[in-house]
Amino acid sequence: MTTMPTHVATPLWESPAMSAALGVPVLLKMEAFQPAGSFKSRGMGAACRAALEAGARRVVCASGGNAGLAVACAARRLGLDATIVVPSSTPEHPRRLIRGQGADVLVHGESWDDAHAFAVEWAAHDGSAYVHPFDDPRVWAGHATMVAEIVEAGVRPGTVVVSVGGGGLLCGVLEGLHAHGLDAVPVVAVETRGADSFAAAVAAGRLVTLPRITSLATTLGARTVTPKALEWAARHPVVPAVVSDRDAVEACLRFADDHRVLVEPSCGAALSVVYTRAAPLAGPDPVVVVVCGGAGVTRALLEEWSRQVGL
Question: What is the pLDDT of residue 66?
């Protein structure tokens, strides 16, 4: 059995530009530098390795793009076959990246939820192991490793900022904080308007299923978050924040200028609350932002997103 790693330890950068924008020290956990271009390499790699150890020969995943690429990348490194089901909203660029890792790509439905239902049925029929992109304890444990790295760097976060799609990253970060005695560190959970199922759930005190995803940040496009995210919100200081697509894209552009790194609007959502000095960040510092990355971004796509939001 191969032991080739499926994720890497990522840098923790101090950001002079974002520190100046917010007025307090801002540190960036650069998950954009993972093998698959996003934090998903951690959790999906852990889940794929567990599937291999349980005897699986093929893994199946439904994804808006990043989780699928991470599964495809991990599967190739572990010697597994992979089938990735994406919705029609996933652009051709991430589909091409997934195929480039040797995985099969199937397109089904308009949203991640449609692709998920199809992929679960496909895996059961095919006898493959289904890897859920955000509702899986193995995935949360994989994402929690980034908190261990932050602590090992000698940093005690005052506030942590994360983007939320299905809630897997949020659950992993919270698991990691509690594992290291950081139970009181507030977490700002950021979504774009039109993909804000977590904020809706917290406001309602129950899970909420959005009728559809209307945000252009399609990789945040889970119409319902994992129940675990709502459980965490009841026992940890988690502050939902919702930003516009325009704010998210503008943050991507500004971040590219400041740090010479391209990220998706799903990541730009978290960055935007720093650039705009959002009220939830008035708490303790340093502020640690998980730069979750995103492989489905190109210069051309950033220009197209900019046009779509009127920048």
Answer: 93
Mean pLDDT to the nearest integer, 261-273: 96
12-39+136-308 placed in CATH 3.30.230.10: no
Portions of the chain given CATH number 3.40.50.1100: 12-39+136-308, 40-130
pLDDT tens-digit series, residues 137-176: 999 999 999 999 999 999 999 999 999 999 999 999 999 9
Q: What is the DSSP string of 104-127?
A: EEEE-SSSHHHHHHHHHHHHHHHT
307 Cβ partners below 8 Å, 6+ apart?
A: none
pLDDT of 296: 83
Q: Are the CB atoms for 103 and 83 separated by under 8 Å?
A: yes
Across the beta sheet with 187-192, what order do the strands follow? Answer: 12-14, 26-30, 287-291, 159-163, 187-192, 238-243
CA atoms within 13 A on the CB side of 29: 32
- What separation in angstroms does the CA of 222 have from each of 60, 164, 196? 18, 9, 9
Give the CATH class of 40-130: alpha beta
